[in-house]
Automatic annotation (TrEMBL):
This is 4-hydroxythreonine-4-phosphate dehydrogenase. Catalyzes the NAD(P)-dependent oxidation of 4-(phosphooxy)-L-threonine (HTP) into 2-amino-3-oxo-4-(phosphooxy)butyric acid which spontaneously decarboxylates to form 3-amino-2-oxopropyl phosphate (AHAP). It comes from Marinomonas arenicola. Keywords: Cobalt, Cytoplasm, Magnesium, Metal-binding, NAD, NADP, Oxidoreductase, Pyridoxine biosynthesis, Zinc. HAMAP family: PdxA. Binds 1 divalent metal cation per subunit. Can use ions such as Zn(2+), Mg(2+) or Co(2+). The active site is located at the dimer interface. The lineage of its organism: Bacteria, Pseudomonadati, Pseudomonadota, Gammaproteobacteria, Oceanospirillales.
Amino acid sequence: MTRQDENKPLPIIAITSGEPAGIGPDIILSALMTQSFAARLVILADPILLQARAKQLGLVPNWEIIQSADQAVTHQKGTISILPIELATPSEVGQLNVANAPYVLKTLEVAGQGCLNGDFDAVVTPPVHKGVLCETGVHFSGHTEFFQALCHSEQVVMMLATDAMKVALVTTHLPLQQVSQAITDESLSLVINALNHDLKTKFGIASPKILVCGLNPHAGEDGHLGMEEIDVIIPTLDRLRNEGVDLIGPLPADTLFTPKYLDHADCALAMYHDQGLPVLKYSGFGNAVNITLGLPIIRTSVDHGTAIDLAGTGTANDGSLKVAIQHAINMANNAKKHS
Ligand SMILES: NC(=O)c1ccc[n+]([C@@H]2O[C@H](COP(=O)([O-])OP(=O)(O)OC[C@H]3O[C@@H](n4cnc5c(N)ncnc54)[C@H](O)[C@@H]3O)[C@@H](O)[C@H]2O)c1
Ligand SMILES: N[C@H](C(=O)O)[C@H](O)COP(=O)(O)O
């Protein structure tokens, strides 16, 4: 039996490098040097980038350069298996360079396509810098939307989770000015149905109970502080309840995130990015995972950004990446069990 055959049942997880000038390379190295994962981990990156960062951080991994995903063997801490993707130009720590945007996008494309065609069982994405990618002229608002387009998914849902809390979003990377118009009966229904479906199928929750935030202060105060609840949110929730979805709300977002509600629900649904994520990050920054629901592939990510200020310093916390990798492994094992 070859080494590959012996390890065949373990999922193959693609890990992209993220923004090369940021902390992506640091946390990949640190996580994989200090913890063994029961999976075959394939880093999609330029080996030169990772080797230079390892040297800067004083780390000496056992490098394996592979030519295809199936050559990866069970991960052991200290080993880094790389499926090479070349940088466009050498990357300097802490210096964003738009010339490397195509490299970043290529790592995501290879990972996403590899998941779609079965080479990988899941993809884990360290952080990219959205601004530098947009400077190339592509509209990149986030991995969530990138993988939605790549997979032609009708509806995706961004959900961040810690052991204590799951927070999903109705709108993702949208200017605040556009949030109200984006909350319609159709969009809210699609998000809630996708969330309800994946909480059942990907998290094994038989009958998910979902807390829904209002959009306005005090959930609109009976229309005195905004009409979106009365015009859109309440009628949509009522209809979905009649269809069997277990929904509570809309509740005022300022008090929804308290144990009285959270302790008796499976997930909170916030109307926009900064309504839900600050609470989640306050409660568990560094230990949370970002999961894209609604995709035909498994994709997890970290709860933080590129932290350019920390790249190459050895002070970046790898906790969220470890959680993201472990979640991807668990979800991939679960999917294999049910396939
Ligand atoms: N998953 C992703 O790809 C992702 C997630 C969030 C933000 N971003 C992008 O990252 C870039 C920078 O965003 P930002 O400045 O708002 O957020 P950030 O998370 O990069 O930084 C916010 C603060 O948290 C600190 N920090 C972040 N990660 C840390 C870690 N692992 N260990 C210790 N400290 C850490 C930083 O030093 C900084 O003080 C933006 O372009 C943003 O779009 C990407
Ligand atoms: N909204 C996420 C966060 O604040 O952590 C982050 O921007 C990542 O989004 P994507 O996974 O879509 O890149």
